[in-house]
Specification:
3 helices
Length: 119
């Protein structure tokens, strides 16, 4: 038991963790700060993403604009297709032992397809 614990402690102490990329990282690389910026916009700056609220439409527009920027920056070896659909439907769920039905309409689904033309 002590042997296993010492191996675990040794591996934790001497494992080299990946260092996040800095803010000056290339646009074709993923880095944590940029992802957090998008989460900040979607979670805090765009308010009210519930049914029949303007924030739901604003969030879809923000996501689509970011994907369009990605499409513009993509190299010639990538083809990026962006499709937008309005959807509606309903779903059932149990809440405190009672069945509840929820409906929605005119929600925006955004589909992105990235194709590498080398394959």
């Amino acid at each position: 038991m002590y042997g296993l614990m010492s191996i675990l402690v040794h591996s934790i102490m001497y494992t080299k963790f990946i260092t996040p990329l800095g803010i000056d990282a290339s646009l074709n690389r993923f880095f944590e700060a940029r992802a957090i910026d998008h989460v900040q916009v979607l979670a805090h700056e765009i308010d009210g993403r519930q049914e029949r609220r303007q924030g739901l439409k604003e969030a879809a527009e923000y996501i689509k604009a970011q994907l369009e920027r990605l499409k513009e920056r993509a190299g010639s070896n990538f083809r990026i297709e962006i499709e937008e659909n309005a959807v509606g439907g309903s779903f059932n769920m149990m809440f405190l032992g009672h069945g509840i039905s929820f409906g929605y309409r005119n929600h925006t689904n955004i589909l992105v397809r990235i194709v590498n033309s080398y394959f």
